[in-house]
Design goal:
Strand order of the largest sheet: 1-2-5
Oligomer: single chain
Number of strands: 7
Strand content: 15-25%
Protein name: Alkylated DNA repair protein AlkB homologue 8 N-terminal domain-containing protein
Radius of gyration: 21 Å
GO molecular function: 2-oxoglutarate-dependent dioxygenase activity; methyltransferase activity
Organism: Ridgeia piscesae
Structural class: alpha/beta
InterPro entries: AlkB_hom8_N
Length: 116
């Protein structure tokens, strides 16, 4: 769940939407796995308000500062620094492996296949 909350009214609307979604799932014989559900509130204000976690089926939903969605790491400020850092780290690891293999005179065509 991703929430962009400006005031108390939008927070109440958000909570009612979660309750409606939860009841819709139970009416349609769907089970929400609360242990896999995350909540992230996006707030650009300097003084963030502390929001209590949403409760679904008696279990509180974990609040997180960032999460990976479709391969992109989103954080609560919608900056991509954590995502860029992760991609940079992954590329450096692959480049290191390629350099080590090149030192053993591995065929360049094989090195290209390892990139894919």
């Amino acid at each position: 769940m991703l929430a962009l909350l400006n005031d108390f009214a939008s927070y109440q609307s958000y909570l009612s939407s979660v309750v409606r979604f939860s009841s819709w799932c139970s009416n349609n014989f769907l089970h929400l796995n609360v242990s896999k559900t995350k909540e992230m509130c996006i707030d650009f204000r300097r003084n963030r308000t502390v929001i209590s976690p949403v409760v679904i089926n008696g279990e509180p939903v974990e609040q997180v500062d960032s999460f990976k969605y479709l391969g992109v790491i989103l954080d609560e400020k919608l900056s991509f620094t954590e995502h860029v850092t992760a991609v940079q780290k992954k590329s450096q690891q692959r480049l290191h492996v390629l350099r080590k293999l090149r030192a053993f005179f591995v065929d360049p065509l094989l090195l290209l296949r390892l990139l894919a």
